[in-house]
């Protein structure tokens, strides 16, 4: 398909569901750059890290609403020439366990989008799907679009099942007559883009969770063996594929009859299958985080994943609470990184003209630069093991020095006396330790005022709690800044 880069974009009106998210905002910016008359982001949030930049363009509009509300969707899609349906729920972490919300957004929300397209005479709908519509834990090597959908009752999480259901709704709606009287005889054209795992500067689903676990020292092992390979796709490459898919739905191209992309699914990736842990190693190295060396089999990983699934299912009422951390891993995530599955984008290349613009090396370099800057602006610190060592140690020392005999206190005191010979000495050691921590905290605060003023209070409290375990990270930052 050979079209100009702005074909079907210039002077057109677009709606992007999930338009304030990572991929959605990148798509909105590119549509605006290519001359779209109006781009509307329909999102449940009103503010995200990218929203301020988008609002600088007068052709950009934002409508806050819920995909689960038919009225919200109907209002947002009025007047559009083309819709990109990106919004979804339950891709990873705690969200995966919220079955009702997953179906409400991914299935009901897609039905609302389809109805609004038909009611308002919208000719083009590009649906962002997932590899999981055909993948469910069984090895796939260089798969293509002829693969059947994974059995609905075989999915280990509601997200993959709901996306498969929604994708089939979208593709089967291709060619349906528009209900709008002004578009009599015309129909809706639809297609689905199935992206690999997405990465890039600002990605908010996979990488922040992985980096947080690495920072806390909670990435102790790899899942699966080193030969396992999966696909990744850089955000700019995915945006390009989405734009090409929208062009593939145009029915007014001279010399072309039926739109080439109508009713079609497309796998999209960088075209470089790689082990996920090998792929992330340069990023972890650049941030001085430990790369997991030990390996855990998929069988054992599933045992751990099912344990966290059961544990978090018990805590279902609190899944939306910020105080509840993300689970270490869930069964679907074990399959994502522990079993080989990668796909060819040959169909997208031949029918849409898709060729990745950004190489994996360039994409990872940009991602590394982003995360290094993000780390420089945030409070750094030791792993959770240092926290446990210091906090538990100080509590035990306090118990041995000051608490009366009850429960395990006599045992703790006896252990302390092996080193310090008397209770008064234990008390002196505890007071000196507290004084040292407070002194280090004050020093850290004064040093941070010079080298990291935005986090000076954080450095004070963290160093007061941890002492030199925290201070050494600030000293390292000070040294690197001076150089």
Low-confidence stretches: none
The CATH topology of the largest domain:
Rossmann fold
What number is the mean pLDDT?
93
Helix content: 40-55%
The arrangement of helices and strands along the chain is EHEHEHEHEEHEEHEEHEHEHHEHHHHHHH
Total strand segments: 13
Ends apart, CA distance between termini: 52 Å
Individual helix count: 17
Kindly give the count of domains: 2
SS strand fraction: 5-15%
Spatial arrangement of strands, main beta sheet: 3-2-1-4-5-7-11
**Given the C-alpha coordinates, what overall shape results?**
elongated
Sheet having the most strands: 7 strands, parallel
Q: Could you say what the CATH architecture of the largest domain is?
A: 3-Layer(aba) Sandwich
| Radius of gyration from CA coordinates | 27 Å
CATH top level of the largest domain is Alpha Beta
**What class do helices, strands and sheet pairing give?**
alpha/beta
What's the CATH H-level superfamily name of the largest domain?
A: NAD(P)-binding Rossmann-like Domain
Pfam families: 3Beta_HSD (PF01073), TMEM254 (PF14934)
InterPro entries: 3Beta_OHSteriod_DH/Estase, Lipid_A_modif_metabolic_enz, NAD(P)-bd_dom_sf, TMEM254
Keywords: Membrane, Oxidoreductase, Transmembrane, Transmembrane helix
GO molecular function, one term: oxidoreductase activity, acting on the CH-OH group of donors, NAD or NADP as acceptor
Would you kindly provide a written description of the structure presented here, covering whatever features stand out?
The structure is a single chain. The protein has 483 residues and is of the alpha/beta class. It is 47% helix and 12% strand. α4 (99-119) packs parallel to α5. The strands form four sheets. The chain has a seven-stranded parallel beta sheet, sandwiched between helices. A two-stranded parallel sheet has the order 6-13. Strands 8-10 form a two-stranded parallel sheet. It has two domains: 13-376, Rossmann fold (3-Layer(aba) Sandwich); 384-477, no CATH class. The model has no long low-confidence stretch (mean pLDDT 93).
